[in-house]
Please model this.
Amino acid sequence: MRATKPRARGASRRPAATALAAVLLLTSVQFTLAAGARADDAPSVPPGTESTSPPPEVDGTAPGLKLRDGATLAPAKVLDIVSVVESEGGEERREDTPENVKIALQAEVLFGKDSAKLSPAANERIASIVAEIKKQGATTVRVFGYTDNLGSAAHGDVLSKARAEAVHGVLDHELASAGITYEIRGYGEQYPVADNSTEEGRKKNRRVEVSFPRGAGGSSEG
Model:
């Protein structure tokens, strides 16, 4: 009988372990790239509200980055939100960045169903926005309206613009002496912030957003 040379302990496992490590590394890189692709496919923000901060520089050839052959990094993006504050029921949401303040009010707290007529409680909500505009000393204000995706897109466009105009009317009346330039738009079902397949998501998408530049002395706290 031919003598068999003893096999070193663990020797048979090394190739399998190496192959498994390679598969895990490749899977991790592919997942990262896929996540970057999904981020690129997400809806962009309305024109004129993009970040003005320069994107960070990323060296795609850095030795610490391990990409499969032919893979490239997704473009760098700036996430410059300083804080986000939302009321418990989601009726009001405030976003602060180094450059801007954006306050979103759900349509239900301002209007009746499928209506652009302001409710009695709307003025109190809008008054807090007026106070913040004064505090920041803003001279340009954007008022954008949005709807969910129920009904026709054309109806959503008309309704969202009418609601933005209604909020603008109150702002302009209260800030008549401030010399503010307004931009009023109705985007309908474009740029949703939540899933339109649920009523909770549609409620968040039915909104009016008021945004304006941050003043030099303005606080980033809500």
The helical segments are 14-41, 122-136, 153-174, 199-205. The longest strand covers residues 100-106.
